UniProtKB/TrEMBL annotation:
Residues 77-86 have a biased composition (Basic and acidic residues). It comes from Papaver nudicaule. The lineage of its organism: Eukaryota, Viridiplantae, Streptophyta, Embryophyta, Tracheophyta. The gene is COQ3. Keywords: Magnesium, Membrane, Metal-binding, Methyltransferase, Mitochondrion, Mitochondrion inner membrane, S-adenosyl-L-methionine, Transferase, Ubiquinone biosynthesis. This is Ubiquinone biosynthesis O-methyltransferase, mitochondrial. InterPro entries: SAM-dependent_MTases_sf, UbiG_MeTrfase. The keyword Isomerase does not apply. Component of a multi-subunit COQ enzyme complex.
Length: 342
């Protein structure tokens, strides 16, 4: 009897229907249960997955068999030199909608002063930095034929860090030799990033701008590698955002996106654990329903002419406090793809 009830509860849970789930718990869905409502609304108000293909039907993905082995670099395509190539590349710049989500922008504005406090709200990003940089270095060096052991392994690459915040990723990218542009929707973040970067000759050349990715698409900017770490879960529409990222990528260039998976484990670890129990992040930093799974990322990248090459999990070792790359993508993950040429 008890097992049948559990089975029905599981079925209701998996059905993604909050009302059915609450009824299985013998609760009236119309009644207010503060904690349960918070949990169930986070869990069940997921983005309608069918919306993603509908919005993207406007343009079919490029046939990957058409990808040539060599392509011009961002240096030759951006901003003025080869107009015809640039037209070809920007022909697929579909996004017109704003990626800004006012609620998310307000949340990040409130903690903008704390970017360089490694014990503050951005502590997880500081702790994650060496691990994600190792992944970025190895994938970009492999893709662009560079030596990952050299002092400046990313030398010669134009990279954009979209949603750069205070610059905690932009700076090490510049130290690795890349020509870096960091953009963020919040003016205060850009000011803090600029002031911090000025302190060191190796980072003072970073171009910081308060602008969105879609605005840079309008300006026809192009980069060898487009990186957006921990941003896609905070934008208005991930598929449109991904289209903008793809439009900023030079043909045969690279794209890297990291985020939090939408699983029961991520709810337990990244929301209940990190926000409510450990209080590393302000409560409400992440909406579970806005999280995007690796499969959804792969689909929206594919629909933006980006072929996913590799997806790695990033896992926190609770004993050492260090993050490691892993096959376990159930909580944090980073995806690397390359742009098909046309
Ligand atoms: C969690 S932080 C990640 C910062 C940085 N990428 C990192 O991982 O260290 C998210 C950042 O994205 C920015 N952001 C949110 N929505 C954005 C948008 N639509 N366009 C550009 N930046 C955005 C926020 O202001 C914030 O700085
Ligand atoms: Mg986040």
């Amino acid at each position: 009897m008890a097992s049948k009830k559990s089975l029905n509860l599981c079925r209701a849970f998996l059905s993604d229907n909050r009302n059915v789930f609450l009824r299985q718990l013998s609760l009236n869905p119309n009644q207010k249960f503060p904690v349960l409502n918070q949990v169930s609304s986070q869990l069940f108000q997921t983005r309608s997955y069918s919306e993603i293909p509908k919005q993207l039907q406007q343009k079919p993905p490029v046939d990957p068999t058409l990808v040539p082995t060599t392509s011009p670099s961002a240096e030759t395509l951006d901003p003025k030199i080869n107009e015809s190539q640039k037209k070809k590349n920007t022909a697929n710049k579909v996004p017109v909608s704003s990626s800004l989500n006012a609620f998310e922008i307000a949340k990040f504005s409130a903690i903008a002063d704390t970017w360089w406090d490694s014990e503050g709200p951005f502590k997880p990003l500081h702790a994650m930095n060496p691990t994600r940089l190792a992944f970025i270095r190895s994938t970009l060096c492999r893709h662009f034929g560079k030596d990952p052991y050299s002092a400046k392994p990313l030398e010669g690459l134009k990279i954009i860090d979209v949603g750069c915040g205070g610059g905690i990723l932009s700076e090490p990218l510049a130290r690795m030799g890349a020509t870096v542009t960091g953009i963020d929707a919040i003016e205060k973040n850009i000011k803090i990033a600029g002031l911090h970067a000025e302190r060191d000759l190796a980072t003072s050349s970073i171009e910081y701008r308060c602008v969105t990715a879609e605005k840079l698409v309008e300006e026809e900017r192009l980069f060898d590698a487009v990186i957006a770490l921990e941003v896609i879960e905070h934008v208005a529409e991930p598929a449109d955002f991904c289209k903008s990222l793809a439009a900023l990528t030079v043909p045969n260039g690279a794209m890297l996106v990291s985020t939090i998976n939408r699983t029961i484990r991520s709810y337990a670890a990244a929301i209940v654990g990190a926000e409510y129990i450990l209080q590393w992040l302000p409560k409400g930093t992440h909406q579970w329903s806005s999280l995007v799974t690796p499969e959804e990322i792969a689909l929206i990248m594919h629909r933006s002419s980006i072929s996913v090459q590799e997806v790695a999990g990033m896992v926190l070792n609770p004993l050492t406090g260090k993050w490691v790359l892993s096959d376990d993508t159930s909580i944090n993950f980073i995806a690397y793809g390359t742009k098909n040429s046309v």
